[in-house]
Amino acid sequence: MGKKLIIILGFIAAVLAVIIAVTPFSNLSVIPIAIAFVAGLIIVFLSKKDNSKTKSIQYIFLMVIIALVLTVYKSVYYTSEVGNTEQLEQRDEENLEDSKELLEEIDFDEDI
């Protein structure tokens, strides 16, 4: 029962890691990669104790490697480009001036 549960946990974490690794949130895939890797190590130790061979260990580690390669690739080669910020700064200054003019036009009652 325990070994099957860890295998299922390892598969779910490995598949989740691969899915997250191909999305823009690839930096978050490190957490399921670590969970799947630890689950794979636990399965290795349990299978050595039982002298049983399981293909699931190989599949989990294969998916972990794929997710890790995708994550590292995206973190190394992904560049975020910053556009022309002069227009944004000019728009912010105009909005600030408009806000000041609106506040100056408002009459506050001193009776309150």
What does this structure look like?
- The chain crosses the membrane at residues 31-47, 59-78.
- This is FUSC family protein.
- The chain is mostly helical and 112 residues long.
- It has a domain at 2-79.
- Helices cover 75% and strands 0% of the residues.
- It is built from 4 helices and no strands.
- The protein is elongated, with a radius of gyration of 27 Å.
List the helices and strands and how they pair.
Layout: H1 2-21, H2 30-50, H3 55-77, H4 86-105
Protein name: FUSC family protein
Transmembrane segments: 31-47, 59-78
Keywords: Membrane, Transmembrane, Transmembrane helix
Overview features:
single chain; 112 residues; mainly alpha; 4 helices; elongated
Number of alpha- plus pi-helical segments: 4
Low-confidence parts = none
User: Average pLDDT across residues?
Assistant: 86
Question: What is the approximate shape?
Answer: elongated
Beta-strand content estimate: under 5%
Per DSSP E runs of 2 or more residues, the count of β-strands stands at 0
Quick structural summary:
This protein has four helices and no strands.
